[in-house]
From TrEMBL:
It comes from the Bacteria. It comes from Flagellimonas maritima. InterPro entries: Gfo/Idh/MocA-like_OxRdtase_N (IPR000683), Gfo/Idh/MocA_Oxidoreductases (IPR051450), GFO_IDH_MocA-like_dom (IPR055170), NAD(P)-bd_dom_sf (IPR036291). This is Glucose-6-phosphate 3-dehydrogenase. Residues 171-231 form the GFO/IDH/MocA-like oxidoreductase domain.
Amino acid sequence: MKEWCHILIFDKNKGMLKVGVLGAGHLGKIHLRLLNESDKYELVGFHDPDEINAKKVADEFGYTYFENINTLIDEAEVIDIVTPTLSHFDCAKKTIEKGRHVFIEKPITNTLEEAEELLELAEKHKIKGQVGHVERFNPAFLAVKDQIKNPMFIETHRLAEFNPRGTDVPVVLDLMIHDIDAILSVVNSEVKQINASGVSVISNSPDIANARIEFENGCVANLTASRISLKNMRKSRFFQRDAYISVDFLEKKVEVVKMKDAPDKPGDFDMVLQNAEGEKKQIYFENPDIEANNAILDELETFADAINDNTEPVVTLKQGTNALRVALQIIDSFNK
């Protein structure tokens, strides 16, 4: 009986990726918990430069604390970087140069030059990388993403109550970059022009920002982000030919309004509009199914799948770099 149980335990761990976490702050602790519970990872341990906090986390949750970052990287197959943005590059570079796969919280790095160097290193060392743009895994966005086809106008509002955590970077890199990444994932065109403005109210970097992004194909995106609002809001609206799609990332709700050619004999309850040219359109509503999920767990586990199946991660290092490039162009335009 003991021998049979041992075989079961061995099979359970088969295929699990050994993962280490860098950073044990607010988000880092969430990642640690989810990775520890996941059946796709075996949590090796974590490293945090704040020894007092690290030992507190280790004592409270039982995770193994590695005082030396290099030792942790050596023990793992995957490294999950949940540290402040300024340290992303150094942590990722060490990880990649040791041939380990890397998951990096957004933004990928602090500068575009750092991100591009990581791209080169990842290709050189043949490793996979994913960036933590978690809104890609929001169930509301997943429910309608395939219906967002060739949008021509996009409007986003991402408003948050003030929280000192994250104010080490401008609001564009802290909040707006989520929407930048989501927009780039559905607009199949290069950026043509960016106009933006940002205002610092509490922090030394802008706390409120608005950006207008024009794409080569004619699509226009108007983005607003604030981290000093009285209420939280995370909404995006997509307008395209014969359709309007609204995504509430916070409440995890969607609205889909579509139009089609009106029938010759509309029903009593059909909503029909007629434009100036005399064309008649029927308006109808769709209610896509929204499947509840844990977006952070999903982004981590799909990365494990990409490694095990040798497929492309959902949010690649290149995509994370593209989002950072646009974010930095927005910040640069503040002073123009």
